[in-house]
Amino acid sequence: MASEDVKRSESAVTTIVNLAEEAKFAKEGVQAPSHAFLSICKSLVAGGVAGGVSRSAVAPLERLKILLQVQNPHGIKYNGTIQGLKYIWKTEGFRGMFKGNGTNCARIIPNSAVKFFSYEEASKGILYLYRQQSGIEDAQLTPLLRLGAGACAGIIAMSATYPMDMVRGRLTVQTEMSPRHYRGIFHALTTVLWEEGPRALYKGWLPSVIGVVPYVGLNFAVYESLKDWLIKRRPFGLVEDSELGVTTKLACGAAAGTVGQTVAYPLDVIRRRMQMAGWKDAASVVTGDGNSKAPLEYTGMVDAFRKTVRYEGFGALYKGLVPNPVKVVPSIAIAFVTYELVKDVLGVELRISD
Questions:
Q1: Which of 19, 203, 288, 339 is most buried, taking the most CB atoms under 10 A from its CB?
Q2: Beta strands 243-244 and 284-286: pairing type?
Q3: Which residues contact 4 (CB under 8 A, 6 or more apart)?
Q4: For the CA atoms of the chain, what is the radius of gyration?
Q5: Burial group, residue 161, by CB count within 10 angstroms (0-12, 13-18, 19+)
Q6: Running DSSP on this structure, what letter comes out for residue 295?
Q7: Whole-prediction pTM value?
Q8: Distances (CA, A) of 192 to 81, 116, 185, 283
C-alpha cells in the first residue's frame, strides 16, 4: 500500500514538473522540444505537399518550357505553347505530357519542404536581429527583409536538391536519339556520377544561385507584402476579419510568380543549357564547313551567356518564356495557398505571414 502511495506521489511530482517546464517554455516564448519537433515535421510536410501538388498541376507546361529552352535552333520542333503541347501529345501521348514529372516531384517535394521551412526560420532570425538593431520590440518584417529571407531559403533549398534538378532536366529532354538513356532517377544520378564525375551533378549551379535570389526572394516578398497591404488597407472589400479568402491568396501568389520568374528567367535558361551541354538535341552551332552542326560546350556561366547571345541573339535568353508564365503563375499561387491550407489542416499555429 505504501509503495502504491509512493508511486502516485512520484507520478504527481512528474506531472507537476512537466507542467512547470511547459509553462516556462510558454512564458519565454519557446516551444517545448517535442512540440517544436512536431511543428517542424508538420511544416516540412506542408511544404512538400504544396510543392508536389503545384508542380504536378502544370507538369506538361514544365516539360514544354525545358524543351523550348534547349532545342536546337537549326531543327525547330516546338514553335509555341499550343503547337508544342499538340506535338508532344501526337508523338508521345499522355505519358509524354508528364515525362520527367516523377523526377520533378522527387526533387520539388524536398525542395519545397526545405524552402518554406527555411523561409520561416530565416524570417524569425532576421526579424530578431532587426528588432535588436532598431531597438523596436514590435517591429515587423519590411519587404526588403522578406526578400532577404526568401533569398536565403531559395539558396538553401536549391543547393540541397540541385543534383535532382540536373538529372530531371536530362530525363525530361531525352529521346531515342539522345546520347545517353537513363532508366530513372537513381540510374541517371549514378551514371552521371560515374561517367562525368561529381562536378557534373552541379553543372549550372552558379547561375542557379544567382537566379534563385531574385526569384524565390521576390516570390516570398511580393506574396507577403501584398497580403499585408490588403489586410491593412482592405481595398474593394476583399478582406473580412483580417483574413484573406483563397481566391485573393491565389491572386497574390500569381502576382508574386509573375514578378519573380520575369526577373530570373534568363538565368534559368543558362542553367538549363549548361546542364544539357553536348546533347544532340540541345542548342548547337554551325561548324566551319557551313553544314554540320556541333552541340555547344560551355566553359562557365559567362561563356554560356556569351555564346547564347552570339549565335542566337538576345531573345534566346527568353526562350520558353511564353509558356512559362502560364506554368509559373498558377504553380506559385497553388503552392502558397496549398502550404497555408495544409498547415491549417495539420494544426500548425505559425503561418508564413505571422
A1: 339
A2: unpaired
A3: none
A4: 24
A5: buried
A6: E
A7: 0.65
A8: 31, 29, 11, 20
- The pLDDT score that the predictor gives to residue 324 is 64
Homologous superfamily assigned to 34-346: Mitochondrial carrier domain (1.50.40.10)
- 3-class secondary-structure state, position 141: coil
Cα-based distances in Å from 297 to 17, 282, 283: 66, 10, 9
**The residue type at 69:** Q
The Cα–Cα gap between 295 and 314 comes to 19
pLDDT, position 294: 53
Stretch 103-119: mean pLDDT: 86
Residue type at position 287: T
Residue 23 has pLDDT above 80, yes or no: no
Judge contact between 220 and 158, C-beta under 8 A: no
Joined together, the cell numbers standing for residue 113 give 519542404
Q: Around Cβ 102, how many Cβ atoms within 10 Å?
A: 15
Q: How far is CA 39 from each of CA 33, 146, 340, rounded to the nearest angstrom?
A: 10, 22, 14
Question: Contact 83/295 with Cβ under 8 angstroms?
Answer: no
Instruction: Look up residue 11 and give its amino acid.
Output: S
CB 45 within 8 A of CB 117: no
Task: Quote the CA–CA distance of 33 and 43 in Å, as a whole number.
Answer: 15
Average pLDDT over residues 191-219: 85
Hey, what amino acid is at 327?
K
Cell of 265: 528567367
Residue 295's DSSP bridge partners are 284
pLDDT of residue 129: 92
Chain CA centroid to CA 305, Å: 23
Minimum mean pLDDT among 22-26, 167-171, 223-227: which range?
22-26
Q: Which three cell numbers stand for residue 110?
A: 524536398
SS3 of 243, please?
A: strand
As a whole number of angstroms, the distance between CA 339 and CA 50 comes to 5
Grid cell at residue 39: 511543428
Q: Are 211 and 165 in contact (CB under 8 A)?
A: no
